[in-house]
Amino acid sequence: MAGSLNGRVCIITGGAGSLGAVTARLFLEEGARVLLVDRAQEALEAAARELGDGVMTHVADVSDAAQTRAYVAAAMAKFGRIDVLFSNAGNFGSVAPIASYSDDDFDSVWAVHVRGAYLACKHASPHMQPGGSIVITSSVAATRGDAGVYGYITAKHAQVGLMRCLAKELAPRGIRVNTIHPGPIDNGFQANVEQGLSEELGRDATAFFDELIPLHRHARPEEIARSVLYLASEQSSFTTGAMLMIDGGMSV
User: Which fold has domain 9-183+220-245?
Assistant: First the structure.
């Protein structure tokens, strides 16, 4: 039985992380071929071994234009087409008052989230097929402001602006562009964030976030991946320019 992504080629950046790898597995189950992109070579290779057939890997810094062109070229050389781009690479930066916030942290977060998504879309979209889909991982942070989270929250807001511009430009070609907005996810990335935030808050940050979420828990990576699949597939054929909240009600 054909899956919802049967024969489609999908690029996933941040592919060595839990959300990237779990989404790749779901895409493969739905018949896709996948290019996983990440700067962490060992973790990327480990993810590919676990996923098995249908996966190609490419080590790249998503904020570098030449390396972005290279992974797009690799996908085209191997598969001959691109149908889905899941721009998912991310980092967090730090939490500090504006007067002492690290300029390097701000630049690093902006480079990965905003420049990385921009470059991915710039170089992949010319090769994408009608009916294709671009999904950018933003965050519930794009709907709020919190003192001290200057790099991450600013970058997540900026991704929405990028998505909206792209949705207008690519619609005549039948390519849809949307952002997903997870709340806290039960994975390593969030655990590292919460370890630092616990020190800032003076209490357990995991419990703090669960209190803010009406469903009173973190999301599982598989739950987020299913929403990415929805946007990547024809199930969302009339959805573009949308912010899909997957936050357990945290933004309500």
Answer: Rossmann fold (3.40.50)
